[in-house]
Amino acid sequence: MKEKILTYALISFVLLNIWSLYLFFDYFTEKDEIMHSLGLFLNFVYTAVASVVLGGILLLIRLIVHFRKRANPLEGNFFYILSGIFNANIFIIWLISLSLHILQIGSGRLQVCAFFSLLLAVIILSDTYKSYKKR
Questions:
Q1: Alpha carbon of residue 78 to chain centroid
Q2: Type and span of the H or E element at 57
Q3: Cβ atoms of residues 120 and 55 within 8 Å
Q4: Residue 52: pLDDT over 90
Q5: How much is the pLDDT for 34?
Q6: What pLDDT is stored for residue 129 in this prediction?
Q7: Burial letters for 89-104: b for 16+ Cβ neighbours within 10 Å, e otherwise?
């Protein structure tokens, strides 16, 4: 089980790196027009919302299975680990964007999405760590 969790974490980091590189090169290949970098911002917003939705659904499934006292299918699941690392990545990117004054703190829905992303990342990664230490 430990090897599977570490393998899934490594694959998750590779996929996040590929996604970040795609966004990086997509930004630099945009034409310099009036709405330059709007596509990058929208990709970030869509990615943040998708990561929170995926993490929320997987956490809900995890809680339902836990309360029914059945065998946990999400304990070492790839998508569960990916969701935790992905939400942590989204929050870190949002925090860096705030510190560099790229985004502003009063951006409402994005701010709520970032805090839910942090919450989901902490819960999912601590649950994964707990199952890692248990084995």
A1: 13
A2: helix 38-67
A3: yes
A4: yes
A5: 67
A6: 85
A7: bbbebbeebeeeeebe
